[in-house]
Amino acid sequence: MATLNYSRIRRTGRWVDVRRRKLGMWAYALNRITGIGLVVYLYLHLGVLSMLAHGQSSWDSFTALARSPFYLALDVILLAIILIHGLNGIRVALTGFDIGVRVQKRLFVILMLIAAAALVVAAAKIFAV
Amino acid sequence: MDNPFAKEPKATTAWLWQVFTGIGLVILLGMHFIANHFIARGGLRDFADVVAYLRNPIVLVLELLFLLFVTTHALLGVRAILLDLGFSGRAEKRLSRLLTGVGVLTVGYGVWLTWIIIH
Q1: Residue B39 included in any domain
Q2: Is residue B36 part of a domain?
Q3: Is the Cβ–Cβ distance between B44 and B37 less than 8 Å?
C-alpha cells in the first residue's frame, strides 16, 4: 500500500513559505509555482483547442471573445509566467550542472530583468494587434 | 553563496530529461508563440487559417514535437514536486506509471485533435 512520510511532507513543503528566505529560495519557489501554473494552463489550453473539433463557428466565436481586452490581459499574465519560468529554468539547469553557482543570484536578477523587458515589448505588441 | 542544490542527490535521468525538454521548449514554445500569436493576423488564427497552418508538414511535425516536449516537461515537473512529499519506493513507481499514463493520454488527445482538424 502507498505510504506517505508526513514529517517529510512538513519539511519538504516548506519551499512554499519564502518569508525571511534568501533570494535563491525565492527563485526556487518561483520556478515551482510558475511551473504548477503552466501545467494547469496546458490542460486549459488543450480544452480550449477542443473547440476546433466542433467546427468553424465554434472556434471563430471563441477567437472573437479572445481578442477582448480582458483576454489580452490574461495573455500578458501568461507570457509573464512563461518568461519567468523559462529564464529562471535556464538558471536552475546551469546551477544543476554546477555552472555559475557563485553568480546565480546576479544571474537570477539579470534574467528577471530580461523577462521584464521582453514582457513590456510583448505586451505592447499584444495590445497593438 | 551557498548552492541550494548542493544537498540534492546526483542528477537523475528524469532531471536530465527535464533539462533536455526544457531547452527544446525554449525553442519550440518561442516558435509556437510567435507563429500563432505574433505573426497571425489579429493575434489569433481563424478556423480556416488553423487548418491551413497545420496542413503544412513542417509545422505539423514542429507542433506535435512541441506537444510531446511540453507534456513530458510538465509531468516530470509534477513528479518532482510530488516526490518531495516523501512517497515510498513502491508508491514512487506507481506515481511514475500514473504520470506516464497521463502523458500518453495527453499526447494521444493532441494527436487525435490535430488529425480531426486537418481532415
Answers
A1: yes
A2: yes
A3: yes
Cβ density class B90-114: b for 16+ within 10 Å, e for less: ebeeebbeebeeebeebbebbeebb
* pLDDT over 80 (residue A59): yes
B interface test, pick of A46, A77, A106, A114 with most B CB neighbours within 10 Å? A46
The domains located in chain A, with CATH, are 6-128 (1.20.1300.10)
Q: Do residue A63 and residue B45 have CB atoms under 8 angstroms apart?
A: yes
The distance of B102 to chain A (nearest Cα, Å) reads 11
Q: Per the structure block, which three cell numbers stand in for B76?
A: 516530470
Question: B5 in a domain, yes or no?
Answer: no
Give the closest-approach CA distance of A121 to chain B in angstroms: 12
* Residue B11 reports pLDDT greater than 50: yes
Pairwise CB contact (< 8 Å): A46 & B38: no
Angle, CA of B105, B106 and B109, to the nearest 5°: 80
Pair A94, A107: CB distance under 8 Å: yes
Q: Which domain holds residue B62?
A: 13-118
Q: What is the pLDDT of residues A79-129, one digit of tens each?
A: 999 999 999 999 999 988 999 889 989 999 999 999 999 999 999 988 886
Partner-chain contact B74 A38, CB within 8 Å: yes
**Confidence (pLDDT) at A12:** 62
Q: Which ipTM did the prediction report?
A: 0.85
| Shortest alpha-carbon distance between residue B20 and chain A (Å) | 9
